[in-house]
Amino acid sequence: QKLLISEETEKSIDAAREQYRPSAFSASILYFVLMDLSHVDPMYQFSLDSYVTRVEQSIDKAGKSDDVGERIKNIIKFHTFAVYKFACRGLFEAHKLLFSFQMCIKIMQGAKKVNMEEYGFFLRGGQVLSKESQPPNPAADWLSEVSWDNITELDKLSNFRGISSALEQNLGEWREWYTVPEPETAPLPGEWENKCNELQRLIIVRSLRSDRVVSAVRSFIISNLGQQFVEPPAFDLGEAFGDSSNSIPLIFVLSPGVDPKSQLELFAKDRGMDGNLKSIALGQGQAPIATRMIEDGIKYGHWVFLANCHLSISWMPQLEKIIEKIPLDKPNEKFRLWLSSSPHPKFPISVLQSGVKMTTEPPKGLKANLLRLYSSLSDERISKCTKPNRYKKLLFSLCYFHAVLIERRKFLTLGWNIPYDFNLSDFDICENILTLYLDSYEETPWDALRYLIGEANYGGRVTDDRDRDLLRTYMKTYFCPDVINTANFPLSKLPNYFVPDDGNLDHYKSFVVGLPSTDHPEAFGQHPNADIASQIQETSAMLDTLLSLQPQAVAGEGESKDDKVSRLASDILEHVPPVFDVEEAYNMKSDDMSPLNVVLIQEIERYNILLKMMKSGLENLLKGIKGVVVMSSELEETYNALFDARVPQAWQKVYPSMKPLAPWTRDLLQRTQQLANWVEGTYPKVYWLSGFTFPTGFLTALLQTSARKNNLPIDAFSWEFVVVNQEEKDITNYPREGAYIKGMYLEGGAWDYEHGCLVEPQHMELVVPMPIIHFKPVDSKKKSAKGSFYKCPCYYYPVRTGTRERPSYIISVDLKAGSENDEFWIKRGTALLLSLQI
User: Which of 238, 561, 587, 725 ranks highest by number of CB atoms within 10 Å?
Assistant: First the structure.
């Protein structure tokens, strides 16, 4: 009888337990989302033990109900948001939306609500290796080639059949949708408004308006998870402290320009621990002192703050052991160990998993940065200068200058070639210089101030020559006699930004509070298109990160991963051009071994390295997929790259590029075709500079040719640039000196063909093709310089810094500045690019 009762009891327990399986399934999904975050940043580490504790807390705190179904819903809802809040505290702002979206997609995948083939398209876009079978772009004036590639490939998915023909037949409606400021909220043209679900709408936005993807993702999350999942909770140090204990460290994950020490000191004061906070900045020789401080803290109940752990990474294994032993040492209840570190892959994982992580980031926006600077000042400090009228005006100018330098980073390559970590110490030093020099001189020493602030202090961090030009331009704008002599001197073309009337500290703070919360690009001297360009790059970064988080074992629905990679590898093999016969090319050009033909031979030798690598790599990859050869790490990398529509890293050693796989393959064919035509014929009448792996070598060859022709040393020549308003087909003769160059793009500006000068671009006109330019070597003594010119830097590809081994900068091309001066275009970040991201 007892056996029967126990069996019945076991069955009822199993039945009750099974009812709660949905909440366990949901919790497991969220755990693996947290685990994936370590691929985004090495500091994003979470342990299973701490996660189980979170689950137990959610079960205790979730709303109670007699209805089991309702109770499960309450647990899932409470725990999902609890995980979001818990994780957000340790994530940088740039990754919080990505985390929400990954949570949302994984939850929907678990509920079988996501078509994985469509989601894969959202991440990778459309790849067209050959244009031969693709219909022509019906709206090339406003629809980019990459967008048309996306649409034609999207048409191959079952739920999007007919979208390319629908676009062709209703170009007016689609263009109207394309040009609205927020297409993600606008109705889709024709039947597609009612035909598409939310993910499918997201795919169409990604295909045509990639700058709006982040905003569309936010709307997607709100619709499927809720508003609270796109509004990260404000950082609360007290809440983080409440989650800690005397054996669990608290870790500040640092970002550039932020020091949490002052915030911690204020918190310690509020907690009555200001006298018991012991801090040390780690570095060489500081480890023994830090160890003693921890030992004393454990014994006497101090708070111990070890700053900049990333600067003492060799000591981290010892610190890890010390932290593991803390519970055994029975620490004082008041003891807390605080750590700060920039992200570092060698930071101990066990410390990150067990600790309470908090990210620290500087304020965002001009308004927040100005407020931060004035909050660091006092009335006594701004009153100590003996020339208060000049000082207060120049102080505001300095504050605005500092805020602009920091916030300009959001424009990425249009902002700075290299992002610099300007911080409060730079400002404090320059404020002291300002006070000292105004007190010491009767007349304002403008040159000294500009040099010490712009060149020595802030400029001391700047390593790129073009960035230094930008810094000098801002200094010239914000530090000039007009700042003092002109009432409410304008700091921008916008009416809100000017130097306010003199007053006390509260007067300046109230003025700053009245500034716009959202920064218009013009406040930095930028065009509104700069925002769109940065949004596109933000989208690209988000999609690349999401792609890296995808499981490698499974493809989407339909075609398997092996089949897809095999098809792509076969297609590329079919289109890879044959290797050049270098010996034959040399023999054909042996009668005329001019500097230009030497460049030709060097170029085909470099391309041969790439072509041979591609051919052998792809052939071995196909064999590896069939199991004929072993998949090496190189083949594995190529396999994953092809599946993700990326160019394998090994293929980029010959020349750098940011293009996805399909445009890169088409670009390679054009590059080799230019060289093949040159080998078989004679010098091209118009050269495609982008087609060279080493363009500076080609330009040097042009100078050498002119030097030999004119019997002058090569150092005696410089460049003159003449923009040619002719199509390539209309150019029938070679220039007397130099060469005609095609294929350059202008970013951050547009070209006025009628007047032959730079002008402002149209809305959404991010890059425009430049006309053919005559690169003409001239004797430096005879060079003419009539009119106002902008020395426009030319870069090999959109990463303007390039790498240490391969800089991207090639040459500065003199372009007529038009109605604006060169300083206007420097602030715009206007540059020529030889290749784009598409």
Answer: 561
Q: How many CB atoms lie within 10 A of CB 199?
A: 19
CB 776 within 8 A of CB 764: no
What confidence tens digit (pLDDT) does each residue in 19-28 have?
888 888 999 9
Question: Mean pLDDT across the chain, nearest whole number?
Answer: 89
The residue ranges of DSSP E strands in 277-335, in sequence order, are: 277-281, 303-307
Predicted confidence (pLDDT) per residue in 250-292, tens digit: 999 998 778 888 889 888 988 888 888 999 999 888 899 999 9
**453: burial class by Cβ within 10 Å (0-12, 13-18, 19+)?**
buried
- Are 417 and 511 in contact by the 8 Å Cβ rule? The answer is no
SS3 741: strand
- Would you say 48 and 350 are in contact if contact means Cβ atoms under 8 Å apart? no
Rounded Cα distance between 576 and 619, Å, is: 12
- Region 64-88: what's the mean pLDDT? 89
Per-residue tokens: 145: 């080639």
**CA gap 151, 164 in Å, rounded:** 6
- The C-alpha atoms of residue 418 and residue 467 are separated, in whole angstroms, by 8
Which pair of structure tokens corresponds to residue 345?
Answer: 């892959």
What is residue 552's predicted lDDT score, i.e. its pLDDT? 60
Q: What is the DSSP secondary structure assignment for residue 455, as one 8-state letter?
A: I
- Angle (CA) 220-224-229 rounded to 5° is 80
Task: Quote the longest CA-to-CA distance of the chain.
Answer: 115
What's the pLDDT at 1? Answer: 66
Token representation of residue 528: 């509104």
| Residue 740, H or E segment | strand 739-742
- What Rg do the C-alpha atoms of the chain give, in angstroms? 31
Sequential DSSP letters for 60-102: HHSPP-SSHHHHHHHHHHHHHHHHHHHHHTTS-HHHHHHHHHH
Position 137, amino acid: N
User: What crossing angle do the helices spanning 93-110 and 21-36 adopt, rounded to 10°?
Assistant: 140
Q: How far apart, in whole angstroms, are the C-alpha atoms of residue 826 and residue 467?
A: 9
The dihedrals phi and psi of 265, each to the nearest 5 degrees, come to: -65, -40
Cα-based distances in Å from 793 to 426, 722, 831, 834 = 28, 16, 5, 11
pLDDT tens digits for 434-456?
A: 999 999 998 999 999 999 999 99
Beta-sheet pairing, 336-341 with 303-307: parallel
